[in-house]
Amino acid sequence: MELGGADDMDGKPFPEKANQTPLQSLFHFSFFFSRYDEAMLKTISFLLALTAAASFAADLAKDQAEIWNLEKAYWEYVKTNDLEKYRALWHDDFVGWPFVSAAPVRKDHITDWITNNTSKGLTLQSYTIEQLAIQVTGDIAIDHYRIKLNWTKKDTGEVARTDAVRITHTWIRTNGTWQIIGGMSAPVNADGK
Fold first, then answer.
1. What is the CA radius of gyration of the chain?
2. Is a pLDDT exceeding 50 seen at residue 69?
3. Measured distance CA(17)–CA(61) in Å, rounded
4. Which of 28, 80, 136, 170 has the most other CB atoms within 10 Å of its CB?
5. Closest CA to 145 of 171, 127, 172, 168
């Protein structure tokens, strides 16, 4: 009995039989490579899945950072009283419930709380955001944070009021742009939480 030139998966040579036809030898040889191809395909699939997971994680981190940056822009627009840029953050189908409103509001009333403060001669002097949680799933993101707001009198610069608020915003990405489609706010509890 002769030993063939190919090895099986255990590293042991497999014998070729003297009465084996060339077709049978080829079949045996191709069977060896089909087992090899299966292992290679599993390895390639694993590497592709790993690459896709890394790419997904990078995209997720980018989306989360983008949402937090938009939240900071939101408060900068309030601070500078830029109502046009502030309104652009809101989706046309927005509905939400700010704690200063007796009922949920739509986009057409989203700046009412800002103009209510500015009409009293107040301006947002400073704010501090405490990021608590964010979840991005596809084109939907939801974030939760606490914010401390210092309102000053426009004419004197004297601190008139400090607010501490819990905020939740739901963002939707449409045509590559994130906008707020829902939200709710409430004063912090007695412990400031």
1. 31
2. yes
3. 60
4. 136
5. 168
CA angle, residues 42, 45, 47, in degrees to nearest 5: 110
- What the chain holds in terms of domains, given with CATH numbers, is 49-187 (3.10.450.50)
17-31 pLDDT per residue, tens: 556 666 555 555 555
Residue 183 CB burial class (10 angstroms; 0-12, 13-18, ≥19)? buried
Structure tokens at 63: 């989306």
pTM of the model: 0.72
Q: What's the per-residue H, E or C state across 102-156?
A: CCCEEHHHCCHHHHHHHCCCEEEEEEEEEEEEEEEECCEEEEEEEEEEEEEECCC
Place of tokens 């004297």: 158
Mean pLDDT within 61-69: 96
Would you state the pLDDT for residue 51? 65
User: Whose CA is closest to 117, among 93, 165, 84, 149?
Assistant: 149
